[in-house]
Amino acid sequence: MLWFGQPGPGSWNGKCLCPFPLPRGQRPRFPQVNEVVFSPGESHCATCSEDGSVRVWSLASMELVIQFQVLNQSCLCLAWSPPCCGRPKQQRLAAGYGDGSLRIFSVSRTAMELKMHPHTAALTAVAFSTDGQTVLSGDKDGLVAVSRPCTGMTFRVLSDHQGAPISTIDVTHKECGDLGVEGTDLWLVASGDQRVSVWASDWLQNHCELVDWLSFPTPAATETQGQLPPSLAAFCPWDGALLMYVGPGVYKEVIIYNLCEKQVVEKIPLPFFAMSLSLSLSTRLLAIGFAECMLRLVDCATGTTQDFAGHDNAVHLCRFTPSARLLFTAARNEILVWEVASC
């Protein structure tokens, strides 16, 4: 599932992005990797694939330690639970499948704890609330379900994006009074029709409120060869008032939107439409993958960019570890693990 590539080291604004050495021999072939997520302590990562597998890997040794397998289903999305009240043994994985089912796996007990069926269509995005007690899931028909793993019940369904597949669900903690609305969580949903909704919620109080709604224009079919790239959005880790968006638009760019000012405050031009997006939690780094087999890193503090090659297919997934020490990129059935270190 994981192999270590050597596209060639590169220096970039005082940073060095150096891939691990590639073992001799042919690259292994596995089903397409759809998601990579990391444990809160960054000791492990988990991947999900088209063959219905969820695999947990040790980041220290890059060895497979746990595998959960569901037959005759594709696992399309995955989330690792946040740290809950200092109880690391309660770490869980939420996995979404092509038949609309949502499964909760216990990492410590290496067992499936719960199977739910909150959707009738394939799940395309999943995320935990900041307290880990609620799971948000989105499907290819544009519905978002809110469920509680402790009871197995889905207690809310949002249809605001109905008609377009959900491509992103991102959740962050909200301080009391932020944006002038109640709630402990701030979360967003991006869908394939270039729309992003932002919500504030307190699920223990059954409170959910729409904060903002963004719509972006669709480019001409000739710009995308008739196939639209995904609409992706994420909250900015180093500035809670900002979110970043990439998707099919009039221009190839990263759009930075200020939730307090309710306006676009910056645009970063790109050479191609983005296929994947990741923001570093500890540094102001932005990783973007393209269908043209290229990875771009952007230093948002200075605006410096550098491009890297290494994959043979579209870079449909890129994920920083929480410390930003490593960057995982995926193209179909292969993963490159990059080390991000000071030069």
TrEMBL record:
Keywords: Repeat, WD repeat
WD repeats: 33-67, 116-146
The UniProt record lists the keyword Iron: no
Record carries keyword Nucleotidyltransferase: no
WDR90 4th beta-propeller domain residues: 32-342
InterPro entries hit by this protein: Beta-prop_WDR90_4th, Quinoprotein_ADH-like_sf, WD40/YVTN_repeat-like_dom_sf, WD40_rpt
Stored PROSITE patterns: WD_REPEATS_2
PANTHER family: F-BOX AND WD REPEAT DOMAIN CONTAINING 7, WD40 REPEAT PROTEIN
Name of the protein in its database record: WD repeat domain 90
Organism: Cebus imitator
Origin organism lineage: Eukaryota, Metazoa, Chordata, Craniata, Vertebrata
Name of the gene encoding the protein in the UniProt record: WDR90
